[in-house]
Amino acid sequence: MRVCILVEGTYPYITGGVSSWIQMLIENMPDIEFDVVHLAPWRWTRLFGYKPPKNLKYIYEYLLFSSDYSKTNIAFDERELVRYVRQLIELKEERAKYFANILRATAGKHIDYLLLSRTFWDFLNDIYVRYFQEEGFPGFYWTVIGFIIPILGAIQALPPKADIYHSTTTGYAVLSALTGKYYHGGKLIVTEHGIYHREREIEITKSKSVPEVYKKPWIEIFKLISETAYAECDALTTLFEKNQIFQFELGADFRKMHVIPNGIDIEKFSTIKKVEHDTFNVAMVGRVVPIKDVVTGIKAFDALVKEVPNSRLYVIGPTDEDEEYYQRCVNLVELLGLGGKVIFTGKANVIDYYGMMDVLLMSSISEGQPLVQLEAMAAGLPVVVTNVGNCPEIALDPDGQSGFVVEPKDYVAMAEKLIILAKDKGLRETLAQNGRRVVSQKYTLERMINSYRQLYEEVLRNA
Question: GO terms for molecular function, please (predicted)?
Answer without folding.
Answer: glycosyltransferase activity
